[in-house]
Design brief:
By secondary structure, the protein is of the alpha+beta class. It contains nine helices and 18 strands.
Length: 359
């Protein structure tokens, strides 16, 4: 049966406290914005929250849980998140709450997630420089819904994949926290020598997106593709020779500066990305070293870093023999991290296939 989104529950477009309002922000309730939508399922943590004063001011914009929020303005358009807690959002998000009983909220989340490109297409259809999907247009979107029993079966299957992906991510987060702690202890107890970043690594700039670039359904001749250091959760095929075959470390070079990724498989470094290949130190050590640097960008309109800038950065490094000992003691942890990452790529591909099948 087909239903319009506005008939599934209450649709709320959020609002931001006025600049003149003092004391609006605090931690009484999460304040959700597109910046908080980073590919995770649930809005457990947000960059900002509202105080009791802020909540009172925006009371009519409160979104009761469970709810689903969709980014409907700007470059982040089409991002979707499930809210297990009551929230308030800014004006860039439309949220569906008070969902009727014959609609499974998790099924609705997956349906909207798989239609993210539709939201982008509709929002960009006016020829305006700023894509936007109004509350009215969003509410009038119509989708087919099976019985509640089928909805729950589909959401259960997708949920099982997401739960495994999330477990792997938590394991990796914990392991990286442990590695960072071990690294800082190692550095603080080592004799250090003055150097530049270019003494221990070759630094390269990412290129443009390959012209022959298409999503494929098989793993054959496919590699993960990264932009801004973040995987787009797909396997992609290409004939361009710009791929990096050796293990390397990439750094986001514009916007959100310093996001760092360790690559254990070939990848395509495209614009807004700088990647490093090791001259003399193990790549695992280089990754931890770059993470510890807290690299800051420069520029008035948009923060950025460049290859010459990184090459000249002054650093202090331990003796290579000590570095090799440290790396040998931590290889097993990195092997597990990379195996979890590889499994998540496979699980994400299966999930994408099922989303396309069911929706």
């Amino acid at each position: 049966m087909k239903h319009k989104l506005k008939d599934l529950g209450e649709i709320t477009t959020g609002k931001t406290p006025s600049k003149g309002m003092i004391g609006a922000y605090g931690r009484a309730i999460n304040f959700l914005t597109p910046r908080d939508l980073k590919g995770q399922r649930y809005s457990i943590f947000t960059e900002r929250g509202l105080s009791l004063k802020g909540v009172k001011y925006l009371k009519k914009y409160e979104v009761m849980s469970p709810s689903i929020s969709v980014s409907c303005i700007g470059s982040d358009m089409g991002k979707v998140i499930f809210n297990k807690q009551t929230i308030i959002t800014n004006q860039q998000l439309n949220s569906i709450s008070n969902i009727r009983k014959d609609i499974d909220p998790l099924y609705l989340y997956y349906l909207l997630l798989n239609n993210r490109n539709l939201f982008k297409f509709m929002g960009s259809g006016r020829g305006s420089t700023m894509p936007i999907l109004s509350k009215r247009e969003f509410g009038n979107l119509e989708f087919e819904f099976p019985s509640l029993k089928i909805q729950k079966l589909i959401s259960y299957r997708l949920d099982s994949l997401d739960k495994k992906i999330e477990v792997n991510r938590r394991i990796n987060d914990n392991l990286l926290e442990l590695m960072d702690s071990r690294f800082n202890h190692f550095i603080s107890n080592s004799k250090l020598t003055d150097a530049t970043l270019s003494d221990i690594t070759d630094i390269h700039s990412g290129g443009n997106k390959p012209k022959e670039f298409s999503k494929v359904k098989t793993n054959k001749f496919c590699i993960p593709v990264y932009s801004n250091g973040v995987s787009n959760n797909g396997l992609y095929g290409f004939t361009n020779k710009a791929k990096v075959n050796e293990r390397s470390v990439s750094i986001s070079a514009r916007g959100t500066i310093g996001f760092t990724v360790l690559h254990n498989e070939p990848f395509v470094p495209i614009v807004r990305l700088i990647y490093l290949t090791s001259k003399s130190v193990p790549i695992n050590f280089l990754y931890l070293f770059v993470r510890s640097m807290n690299i800051q960008g420069y520029g008035s309109t948009q923060q950025q870093i460049t290859v010459p800038y990184l090459k000249g950065l002054k650093i202090k490094v331990p003796d290579i023999s000590e570095i090799n000992k440290f790396d040998a003691n931590n290889i097993s942890a990195f092997d597990l991290i990379l195996e979890n990452k590889k499994e998540n790529i496979l699980l994400s591909d299966i999930k994408e296939t099922l989303l396309n099948k069911y929706f």
